[in-house]
């Protein structure tokens, strides 16, 4: 039996000490955004490569309303279906998306160190795209769970997508509050007896700020250099309202990997 669960207080020890004492629970929770974090593109934009002439009609492109991304993507998928674009073609196109620099090495490393790391994705993309991309690259087993908008192909071959959940957060798009997802996941693990010593959140976008502001002082926010999340976190510091967690800016997955190596040695 795990000595942590036996109440020895081991779960508060550094990862290496816990493991030396035979604790099997991962100490660290890694949370990844997907678009422009794991992959170096927006998957919802990349799918437009399947459209006739690789573009959307202006009317459709201009129909997006702030906070209603899922509805917009539903219209895009309907247009692709109406244009005769089928599942196999979409899959072929989506699996050519480049990974962000160093991310393949990082995910390989995490996969080899699952004793230390639980790893989840929270993304505003959809289940179909993320499954295709992770499976094609052989990374699906690195992830413990993927939280994203549920998508499926209808009987007539159209891709359809739904909102991930409903929430009451005023800061987030209607279909997804990543903070709520993260908090529910951490609560669920706590009920299973897993208490993470550190949460590490890796992302780039504006919708990653809400979960990042829920991190505590022992956690680490890892915003991508030069992207919206990093700018928002910097602005908060300038406004004397800094995030509670430490902040580590990255440009390549290799920098994240180096930091994880330090963490498991501690
Ligand atoms: Mg992103
Ligand atoms: Zn939120």
Structure description:
There is one protein chain. With 266 residues, this protein is an alpha/beta fold. The chain has a domain at 10-41 and 99-151 and 169-265: HAD superfamily/HAD-like (Rossmann fold). 37% of the residues lie in helices and 14% in strands. It contains 11 helices and 8 strands. The protein has helices spanning 15-20, 43-46, 58-61, 69-82, 87-94, 103-112, 127-136, 178-191, 209-212, 228-238, 253-265, and strands at residues 28-32, 117-126, 145-149, 151-153, 159-161, 198-203, 220-223, 246-247. A 6-stranded parallel sheet has the order 3-2-1-6-7-8. The protein starts with 14 loop residues before the first helix and ends with a helix. 37% of the residues are buried. Residues 169, 171-172, 177, 179, 210 line the site of zinc ion.
Brief summary:
Helix content is 37%, strand content 14%. It is globular and about 60 Å long.
Which descriptors would you attach to this protein?
single chain; 266 residues; alpha/beta; Rossmann fold; six-stranded parallel β-sheet; two-stranded antiparallel sheet; binds magnesium ion; binds zinc ion
Our measurement of the CA-to-CA distance between the termini, rounded to an integer number of angstroms, reads 24 Å
| Tally of DSSP helical segments | 11
Radius of gyration: 19 Å
Give me the CATH fold name of the domain at 10-41 and 99-151 and 169-265: Rossmann fold
Biggest beta sheet attributes: 6 strands, parallel
Mean pLDDT score: 93
The percent range for helix content is 25-40%
Shape: globular
Instruction: List all distinct small molecules, including ions and cofactors, that are bound in this structure.
Output: magnesium ion, zinc ion
**Adjacency order of strands in the biggest sheet:** 3-2-1-6-7-8
What's the SSE pattern?
HEHHHHHEHEEEHEHEHEH
Our estimate of the beta-strand percent is 5-15%
Family: Belongs to the HAD-like hydrolase superfamily. PHOSPHO family.
Pfam family, one: Put_Phosphatase
Binding site for substrate: 44, 124
Protein name: Phosphatase, orphan 2
